[in-house]
Design a protein that fits this description.
Keywords: Membrane, Transmembrane, Transmembrane helix. This is DUF1468 domain-containing protein. InterPro entries: DUF1468 (IPR009936). The chain is mostly helical. The chain has two domains: about 60 residues; about 80 residues, no CATH class. It contains five helices and no strands. The longest helix has 22 residues. It is flat, with a radius of gyration of 19 Å.
């Protein structure tokens, strides 16, 4: 089987169905926002499903093979995302996000200095955005004051 847009579209539809199925059961023990926790996964499933349908209907292109080294970087990205999920609560949002950004930056050839500055900026910047603008409570982990 050759990989083309239609095959990718079929996988996207399957993934969207799985996401919707898992997201449908999300309920908060108390109402803390107007739409609840299931809105994001269902919205994301809808967008993925629409893209998958588009690829199945309009897709005719063969997929290009990955360039050398891409599969290794993809594997490392999966490892980094899994590690991020594991350290998120204990290290906190700012530290975990900064570390994730540093290692992803290095994975794609960034210089240490640029990756460190970018990671710190992303960690602090996104924390301020979610905490102050969106009023989303994020774990502080290692940076917890007095705790």
């Amino acid at each position: 089987m050759t990989l083309n847009d239609r095959v990718l579209g079929a996988f996207a539809l399957l993934f969207a169905a799985l996401l919707a199925w898992q997201g449908w059961g999300l309920e908060a023990p108390f109402s803390y926002e107007p739409v609840g926790p299931r809105a994001f996964p269902l919205l994301l499933a809808g967008v993925i499903a629409l893209c998958g349908l588009w690829l199945m209907v309009r897709g005719r292109e063969q997929a290009e093979p990955n360039p050398p080294g891409a599969n290794v970087r993809i594997t490392w990205m999966v490892v980094l995302v899994a590690a991020y999920a594991l350290i998120f609560a204990s290290l906190g949002f700012i530290v975990a996000t900064a570390l994730m950004a540093v290692f992803v930056g290095r994975l794609f050839g960034g210089r240490w200095r640029d990756c460190l500055l970018g990671g710190l900026g992303l960690g602090v910047g996104f924390y301020l955005l979610f905490d102050k603008v969106f009023d989303v409570v994020l774990p502080m982990g290692l940076l917890t004051v007095g705790g």
